[in-house]
């Protein structure tokens, strides 16, 4: 994963369709980035936008959130788009909070919903 710009994409189960649609609609901008994604989200993104450079990691509850956190801490992931479902309890909520904490600590742009992701897009074009 060394070198280049890397963006992380994650979506909770109820937001995976939204993430796939987002990736398809904005594939022109996202195609300029290497993308890492948790397992199922990455699969859905690849189906929606097969030309994107997506590396699928483990599923979030199986360590994917932590893998992305590690990439943030090493400076490899430079932005995070995480479509969060605030209405569904998550058994791996502590991993999600740790991931968000790392994004804040390392001061990378982080969008947690579609509206913020749209605002983040122009910064990804640079």
From TrEMBL:
Active site: 65 (proton donor/acceptor)
Gene3D superfamilies assigned to the protein according to its UniProt record, in alphabetical order: Methylglyoxal synthase-like domain
Keywords: Lyase
Keyword Nucleus included in the entry's annotation: no
Record bears the keyword Nuclease: no
Domain MGS-like: 1-126
Residues given in the record as substrate binding sites: 12, 16, 38-41, 59-60, 92
Top-level enzyme category: lyase
CC per GO annotation: cytosol
SUPFAM superfamilies: Methylglyoxal synthase-like
One Pfam family linked to the record: MGS
Stored PROSITE patterns: METHYLGLYOXAL_SYNTH, MGS
GO function term, MF aspect, one: methylglyoxal synthase activity
Swiss-Prot/TrEMBL GO biological process terms: methylglyoxal biosynthetic process
Catalytic reaction annotation: dihydroxyacetone phosphate = methylglyoxal + phosphate
EC number(s) per entry: 4.2.3.3
Family as reported in the entry's similarity comment: Belongs to the methylglyoxal synthase family.
Biological role stated in the UniProt entry: Catalyzes the formation of methylglyoxal from dihydroxyacetone phosphate.
Name of the protein described by the UniProt record: Methylglyoxal synthase
Species per Swiss-Prot/TrEMBL record: Rhizobium redzepovicii
Gene transcribed to yield this protein: mgsA
